[in-house]
Write a structure and sequence with these properties.
Elements: E1 5-9, E2 18-22, H1 38-48, E3 53-56, E4 65-68, E5 81-84, E6 89-95, E7 99-105, E8 110-116, H2 123-135, E9 143-146, E10 156-158, H3 159-168, E11 174-178, E12 181-184, H4 186-197, E13 204-206, H5 220-223, H6 232-235, E14 242-247
Parallel strand pairs: 3-6, 4-5, 9-13
Antiparallel strand pairs: 1-2, 2-14, 5-8, 6-14, 7-8, 7-9, 10-12, 11-12
Length: 248
């Protein structure tokens, strides 16, 4: 499995969970409740062996986060983030250029995994608020990893979206490229948001990998660049969706 997954402990402790995500070599981790993905099933069987249980939701590019006590709490749920304190579970979301956010509070043993694309930027604030409500986990105690995602070297957006991010997060997350195009940094947007939420800077790790630049990762933008004529539904089968997870 080592060549199919990028993973690392949150902190240097025997009790620390690991955050991780599948690599392109693992194949597509696409997930819909009304579909069967044999590749994903095989991957999850290997990941959860012998005594862990995958807990997954169907994404819809929202800021919706759910708190779960067991895997059945996810059944038929559509959301973009999962929080749990159950160490037997492996909460998972799927990503491909969008940012996976991994969270761990060593005080309350609360973990979370989030899918944060441009529409979902802000979901980490919802997750911190829900964790505090359900588990008393405080923002200042969380260790947070902003995982591999499309960086501003490759993520160009129009003026409308640039203005949205500049106004709602920080002007530092956009860079004017001229001719109505802007480079967008999802990392800077989330760093500004986490600071407002009270998460210390030293508790946050930003992974340097750009999923569009680095072909070890699946990338919606890179893998569908030659298929601009296809509909979004058809494009969905042309790129490698990855599984992002937290595991004790």
């Amino acid at each position: 499995m080592e060549d199919l997954i990028l993973s690392q402990k949150f902190i240097d402790s025997p009790d620390s969970p690991v955050w991780g995500m599948s690599l392109k070599a693992a194949g597509s981790m696409r997930f819909r409740w009304n579909e069967v993905n044999p590749n994903r099933l095989e991957f999850l069987n290997r990941l959860s062996f012998p005594d862990k249980i995958p807990a997954q939701v169907e994404l819809y590019h929202s800021q919706e986060v759910v708190f779960i006590k067991d895997a059945d709490d996810c059944k038929n749920v559509r959301a973009d983030g999962i929080i749990t304190q159950n160490k037997s579970l492996i909460p998972l979301v799927t990503v491909a250029d969008c940012m996976p956010i991994f969270m761990y509070d060593p005080v309350t043993s609360t973990v979370a995994v989030l899918h944060s694309g441009w529409k979902g930027t802000g979901i980490v604030k919802n997750a911190l608020e829900l964790a505090l409500k359900k588990t008393s986990a405080r923002p200042e105690d969380f260790k947070i990893v902003l995982g591999p995602h499309i960086h501003d070297c490759c993520y160009n957006v129009d003026e409308e979206r640039a203005e949205y991010f500049s106004s709602n997060f920080t002007p530092e997350c956009v860079r004017n490229l001229g001719q109505g195009q802007y480079a967008l940094s999802l990392a800077r947007a989330n760093l500004a948001l986490l600071k407002k939420c009270g998460v210390p800077e030293e508790n946050i790790c930003v992974r340097p990998e750009c999923t569009c630049c680095n072909d070890k990762f699946g990338s919606f933008r890179r893998e569908t660049a030659a298929f601009s004529y296809l509909s979004p539904e058809e494009k969905a089968f042309r790129f490698t969706v990855q599984a992002a997870f937290v595991k004790f």
